[in-house]
Specification:
binds zinc ion, alpha+beta, 36% helix
Length: 87
């Protein structure tokens, strides 16, 4: 079962900064109701991993690395099961 760890953006008060809150390339909010993005957060559906950082690039990178670790675990688990079956 594939895991998901969607990345979300948040305002300083913890509320979501939805995708329609556009930012300039320098990170300034363009939306009238938007106080600006304070941090990005990613929570994995495995329930064992989450990350909250001001750097969106870092969160995205760590998220991909974590998801890749799930993929890497798959074949190993299957090998272990085969070993149990064969003994
Ligand atoms: Zn916003
Ligand atoms: Zn996970």
């Amino acid at each position: 079962m594939p895991f998901r760890a969607p990345l979300t953006n948040h305002h300083a008060d913890g509320t979501d900064c939805p995708p329609h809150h556009k930012q300039t390339s320098s990170g300034k909010p363009l939306h009238l109701d938007c106080p600006g993005r304070a941090y990005a957060q990613a929570i994995c559906s495995c329930g064992g991993w989450e990350l909250k950082q001001s750097g969106k690039g870092y969160v995205n990178e760590s998220r991909n690395r974590h998801l890749a670790s799930h993929v890497a675990q798959g074949p190993k688990v299957r090998r272990d099961l085969h070993r149990l079956d064969g003994s």
